[in-house]
Amino acid sequence: MKVHLIAAGKFHDIDFARLELLKLLAERPQIRTSVAADYGDLASLAAADLLITYTCDLMPDGLQQVAALEAFLARGGRWLALHGTNATLRFGADGVVDTPDEVPAFTRMLGTRFAGHPPIAPFKVFVTRGDHEITQGLRDFRVEDELYLTHRTAEIDVLLHTSFTGRCDEFRDADWDEAEVPVLYERKVGEGRVLYLTLGHCRGHYDLQPVSAFWPHPQRCAWNYPVFHELLRRAIGWGLPHAA
């Protein structure tokens, strides 16, 4: 079974996330994984059963790469999108972060577009649908992570959610009052499916350059929680149902 992992981007400890995901994939000996740092390896994507992306501020480069993702989903491929996959970050002259929709065909496939997050803090995650293979048997849980706030770009089926009322002062889209903030959702695209899990922030000492030369406190957030690893294991199984 072939998995294509894209792990790259800004302001996160991508090396840590890549290694943790590869360790989880290695638990299934029938999986063979290709690894890339952008969306340019079209041959590996075309051969894959499952695409996994852990990125931030990394978009497909041009129509050919967008079309390859569309073709992957159209033929029945499954895409596990993690954390900042849907994020575009542009720093304004005033230091506030804009999150423009620069590749709308991409965010339309994903079903959401990142818009901001409050400071990292504990929050409660609720099981929205307990009858799905990813959430069956799970209970509501608390986690300390970035609470991702998004705008929906297409129809999605929310499986886990949280809520948020307040401000995200670092982001242009600052004021929020949301009773249902998607944390995990599924979306059907063609014959394929997207599974998006917003948890999983991680950052080391040197990952905020050039914004900050040194980050004093490394962050692992949801990676410290067994429930997050359980969700990832289930998501890998979801991506390869015939390998379960």
In brief:
By secondary structure, the protein is an alpha/beta fold. 21% of the residues lie in helices and 34% in strands. It has helices at residues 14-25, 42-47, 63-74, 104-110, 226-239; strands spanning 2-9, 32-36, 50-56, 78-82, 90-91, 97-98, 112-116, 121-127, 141-145, 149-152, 157-167, 175-189, 192-197.
Descriptive overview:
This is Trehalose utilization. It holds the Pfam family ThuA. Residues 30-209 form the ThuA-like domain. InterPro entries: Class_I_gatase-like, ThuA-like. This protein is an alpha/beta fold. It has a domain at 2-110 and 183-243: Rossmann fold (3-Layer(aba) Sandwich). It is built from five helices and 13 strands. It has helices at 14-25, 42-47, 63-74, 104-110, 226-239; strands spanning 2-9, 32-36, 50-56, 78-82, 90-91, 97-98, 112-116, 121-127, 141-145, 149-152, 157-167, 175-189, 192-197. It has a nine-stranded mixed β-sheet, sandwiched between helices. The chain is globular and about 45 Å long. The model has no long low-confidence stretch (mean pLDDT 97).
